Amino acid sequence: MPERQFNNILGCDKNYNESKIVVFGAPFDGTTSYRPGARFASSAIRSESYSIETYSPYQDKDLEDIFVFDAGDLELPLGNTVKVLERIEEFVSAVLDDGKIPFMIGGEHLVSLGAVRAAVKKYRDLHIIHFDAHSDLRDEYLGEKLSHATVMRRCWDLVGDSRIFQFGIRSGSREEIYWGREHVHTSFFGFGQLDDIVNALRGKPVYFTVDLDVLDTSVFPGTGTPESGGVAFCELLDAVRKVSELDIVALDMNELAPPLDPTGSSTSLACKLLREILLYVYK
Q1: What CA–CA distances, in Å, run from 237 to 83, 106, 191, 275?
Q2: Nearest residue to 111 (alpha-carbon basis) of 42, 44, 65, 180
Q3: Angstrom distances, CA of residue 270 to CA of 33, 47, 219, 223
Q4: Across-strand partners of 205?
Q5: Which has the closest alpha carbon to 113: 100, 126, 97?
Q6: What are phi and psi of 226, to 5 degrees?
Q7: 243 and 204 in contact (C-beta within 8 Å)?
Q8: pLDDT of the chain along its 283 residues, tens only?
Q9: Is the Cβ–Cβ distance between 13 and 230 less than 8 Å?
Q10: Which one of 161, 212, 241, 262 is at 20 to 30 Å from 45 when CA atoms are compared?
Q11: How many C-beta neighbours within 10 Å does residue 280 have?
């Protein structure tokens, strides 16, 4: 993978060959159903991360001491959803083949499908842990099979029953919620049973996806489909810590829409959470 010169995210300035984690942006929000803007998340995080310390007082660790490569943003054909997912899958496959952990910054949540496609090819026993306000289990949305509202259903197509574990869910159609009862594990409104799930998944390959609208709108208003009644930042941080004990082979963080929060606080929160996830996941 070629080296690139640009303003790196946080302390993610190591070279590719020596790095264990590869961060990259997937600037796509072509199926957003309410408020667009998530395509600007990775560039905003990159430009605003200078204000966040690389040191974490939560963990007594520093990004300067670990090896993370920032690969920049993928060049995506925004008008072609199929090709967007193919491009993401191709990139993630290359990172996985090099024995590294890909960490994608969306973008809307559909970008996760491209990464999961790559991960499940390498890890047939792949399990998915999903933090979100929305179940994303519709089979189609407005006639479209590929949508941020269907992403977990399309992931289920790949991994099957009892492989997807959702937390923080507080929104969905009756049909998709009822369907989910039969095919996935869902903890509504928070992180109930997370400890049990983590214990059950030890030793298994895990894809970890964090939709930032799992957070309450009072602390994270900058997202395309805000839902009241979400979790607090420290609750999310504690849940991330627990999940990081598992064998995470790939992960993503998505649905920050910087233009929707003119205060910049949502972008700042995303930068801080990115730091903490990197430090937790890095082994």
Answers
A1: 34, 19, 11, 11
A2: 42
A3: 22, 12, 11, 11
A4: 247
A5: 126
A6: -65, 145
A7: no
A8: 655 546 788 889 999 999 999 999 999 999 888 899 999 999 999 999 988 999 999 999 999 999 999 999 999 998 899 999 999 999 999 999 999 999 999 999 999 999 999 999 999 999 999 999 999 999 999 889 999 999 999 999 999 999 999 999 999 999 999 999 999 999 999 999 999 999 999 999 999 999 999 999 999 999 999 999 999 999 999 999 999 999 999 999 999 999 999 999 999 999 999 999 999 999 8
A9: no
A10: 241
A11: 20
Q: How many residues does the chain have?
A: 283
Which residue has tokens 């009862």? Answer: 181
The 3-class secondary structure across the chain, one letter per residue, is CCCCCCCCCCCCECCCCCCCEEEEEECCCCCCCCCCCHHHHHHHHHHHHHHCCCEECCCCEEHHHCCEEEEEECCCCCCCHHHHHHHHHHHHHHHHHCCCEEEEEECCCCHHHHHHHHHHHHCCCCEEEEECCECCCCCCECCECCCCCCHHHHHHHHHCCCCEEEEEECECCHHHHHHHHHHCEEEECCCCCHHHHHHHCCCCEEEEEEEHHHECCCCCCCCCCCCCCCECHHHHHHHHHHHCCCEEEEEEEECCCHHHCCCCHHHHHHHHHHHHHHHHHCC
Amino acid present at 130: H
Q: 């509504």: which residue's tokens?
A: 188
Q: Is 26 left (phi over 0), alpha (psi -120 to 50) or beta?
A: beta
* Identity of the residue numbered 160: G
